[in-house]
TrEMBL record, chains A, B:
GO terms for molecular function: acyltransferase activity. InterPro entries: SpoVAD, SpoVAD_sf, Thiolase-like. Pfam families: SpoVAD. This is Stage V sporulation protein AD. Transmembrane segments: none annotated.
C-alpha cells in the first residue's frame, strides 16, 4: 500500500495544506437567500455585463479566482496550479477564465462534485511537494445550465417538485503548503455509482447513493465516526437526496443525522424562494463552502467538517439515449485542529 | 519554491513512476493506417456492438482500460485511481466507463490534451505517495465527435482542407510506483493560450501556440535541449499546426526539427486516407502513445520522448457565440534511463 493511503478510497495528508483564503460571487437570487451576508459579491445582474450567460459565468469564475488570490495576499504568478471545471460543455466557464489568468491549468470535470475534486487534487499536489500555492475553483449559472441541460428559459416550463435550482455562483479557495488552517487532512475519492435513476428532474435521488457510498467509505477508511464532525455536508442532494443518503448511510451503521446538512438546502429558503427540492450546480457547494462554512471555521464555530460535493454525470445526449444517471461524490476533511 | 519544482510549469518526479503496461483499441480506418500492427484491437465495426456511437466509445474505453490492467497482471481492485476524460459533453465515455469499473475516479477535461493530463496527475499521485497503481486513459470517436462538434454525418458535408479527422481510438496506461520503466520523469503543465483563431476547421493553427508555449517552457524549466530527446511528439496539431509550432519554438531559440513529429501525422497516411490535415481527438495521442511509442520504448528504439498532447478548449456554444479557441498542451518526459 502506498505510504499515505488509508483503505481503498482515502488518503491522509502528511503535511495537511491550509486553505488560506476563499472568495465567492453569487447571483441575485442567491443573494436574497439565508446566506446572503456571507457572500463577498452579490451580482445585481446575472449577465454580469457580458453578452451571454456562458461568458457571464466565466467572468464570475475568473473574478472570484482573482479575488481569492488577492485575499491571500498573493500574485497570480505565485499560484502554481489552477484546478477548475464547471458544468458547461467543454468547461467553457473554466477554460475561458483560465485563458486570462496565466496559471498552469488542469481542467476537471466531476459535474457538481468539482469543488471537492479540485480541493482533493490540489491538496495532494501541495502535500506531495509539487506546489506551494494552488487555486481550486468552480462555478455554475442557472441560466447557462438550464438552456444546456433542460429547456430554453423563454419557454417558461413548469418545474417538477423534485427538480433543483442551479445556483448562480462561483467559489474559489487558495491552498497553501504553509498556513494556520483550516487544513485539508483527508481526501476520499469517489467511485461512479449508478442505481438506475433516469429522471433528470430528480438528480438528488440519482446522486444520493454515490454520496452515501463515499461517506461510508470515508468512515471505514479513516475510523472516524459521525460524532467526530461538527458538520457533514453534501454538495447538492437537496431535500429528497439528503433523506435518501442519510438512510443508506444509517443502513451501513453510521447515524449522521445530528450533524448532516446539504449545501443545496442551506443556500435557499425553499419555502419562500420557490426552489423546490433545493439548490444544485457546481457553484452550490463551492459558494456555500467558500463563504458560510469557511467563515464559520475561521470563527471556530465549526472545527471539523466533512465536505462531500456530489455530481450527476449525465449529459443531454445520455439522457436522450435513455441512459440512467451515473453519479459521483468526493469528500475532504477540513479541520482546524491537527493531531500529530 | 516547492521542493520538486523546476521553474514555473515543470516538476521533476523524485521517484519516477513506471508505465508498466498500455493497451489500445482503434477503429477500422485507424487499423488501415501506417501504425496498424502496433494496435492491440482494431474494431471491424465502429459501433462496437452498441446502439450509439457514444456508448460504443465508452465501451471501447472501458475495455481498453480493463485490457491494460490485465496486461499489467493486476486486478481492478489494485488500481487506486482512474484518471480519465474524453471529448463528449460531460465526459459521457469516461463517466459511463468508470461506472462499470469500481475504481476511485477523477474526471479530467483537457480536450485532446487529456492523455498527458492524466499521465501528469497520475505520475504526481504515485510519486507523492498516494497510490501504487493508477490508470490513465482517454478516447475519442470520429462519429460521436462529428455530430457533437460539427454536423450530422448523414449530411455528408465537404470537409475543409485544414480540417482534421477525429481518431476513433482509446488508449490506457497503467502507472506504478515500482517498475523497470519507461519512467515518467518530468511533468510540464500547460497554460491556456489563445491567439485569436476562430476557425473551428483549423484546430491545428489554434493549438500550435499552446504546444509551442509548453515545449518552450519545458526546455526553459528543465534545461533540456531538443537533442536530449529521441522524439518530441505533439498530440494532434496535424500538418498545419505542426509547422506553426515548430516555427514558434524556433523563434524562441530551440530547433526541434530533427526530432519533431505529431501523432496526428503518424496515425494516418494522409495521402491515401483522405484525412486532410491529419488525425485529431483525445484518442489520437492516446492510441499512438500507448501503441507505437510505448512499444518502441520497450524495444529501446526510442529512449527519451517528450509527449505533448494538445487540446482545443472550444465548445459548440463558444463557437456559435463568435469566440476564439482557447488551447492548452501538457507535456511529460518519458524515458528509459534515469540519471541519479
Amino acid at each position: 500500500m502506498a505510504r499515505k493511503r488509508l483503505g481503498r478510497q482515502t488518503v491522509k495528508l502528511q503535511h495537511p495544506p491550509s486553505i488560506i483564503s476563499t472568495a465567492t460571487t453569487v447571483g441575485p437570487k442567491e443573494g436574497e437567500g439565508p446566506l446572503s451576508h456571507y457572500f463577498d459579491v452579490v451580482l445585481t445582474d446575472d449577465l454580469c455585463g457580458e453578452n451571454s450567460w456562458e461568458l457571464s459565468e466565466s467572468k464570475m469564475l475568473r473574478e472570484t479566482i482573482k479575488s481569492a488570490i488577492q485575499k491571500a495576499d498573493k500574485n497570480i504568478v505565485e499560484i502554481e496550479y489552477l484546478l477548475s471545471g464547471d458544468l458547461l460543455n467543454q468547461l467553457m466557464a473554466a477554460s475561458f477564465a483560465a485563458r486570462d489568468l496565466d496559471i498552469p491549468f488542469l481542467g476537471l470535470y466531476g459535474a457538481c462534485s468539482t469543488m471537492t475534486e479540485s480541493l482533493s487534487i490540489g491538496a495532494m499536489l501541495i502535500d506531495g511537494g509539487y506546489a506551494n500555492y494552488v487555486a481550486a475553483a468552480t462555478s455554475s449559472h442557472f441560466s447557462s445550465a438550464e438552456r444546456q441541460f433542460r429547456f430554453p428559459l423563454e419557454l417558461g416550463n413548469q418545474r417538477s417538485l423534485t427538480a433543483q435550482w442551479t445556483v448562480t455562483g462561483a467559489g474559489a479557495a487558495i491552498l497553501a503548503a504553509n498556513g494556520s488552517g483550516p487544513y485539508i487532512s483527508h481526501v476520499t475519492t469517489g467511485k461512479v455509482i449508478d442505481l438506475g435513476i433516469k429522471d433528470v428532474n430528480n438528480m438528488g435521488a440519482a446522486m444520493a447513493p454515490a454520496a452515501a457510498d463515499t461517506i461510508t467509505a470515508h468512515f471505514e477508511d479513516t475510523g472516524f465516526k459521525p460524532e467526530d464532525y461538527d458538520l457533514i455536508v453534501t454538495g447538492d442532494l437537496g431535500a429528497i437526496g439528503k433523506e435518501i443518503a442519510e438512510e443508506i448511510v444509517l443502513d451501513k451503521g453510521y447515524n449522521i443525522t445530528k450533524v448532516f446538512n446539504d449545501c443545496g438546502l442551506l443556500i435557499f429558503d425553499n419555502k419562500t424562494q420557490d426552489t423546490h427540492a433545493g439548490g444544485s450546480g457546481c457553484g452550490c457547494s463551492a459558494s456555500v463552502f467558500c463563504s458560510y462554512i469557511f467563515k464559520e471555521m475561521i470563527n471556530k464555530k465549526l472545527n471539523k467538517v466533512l465536505l462531500i460535493s456530489t455530481g450527476a454525470l449525465l449529459s443531454s445526449t445520455s439522457a436522450l439515449q435513455g441512459q440512467s444517471i451515473p453519479s459521483i461524490a468526493h469528500a475532504v476533511t477540513i479541520t482546524n485542529i491537527l493531531k500529530h
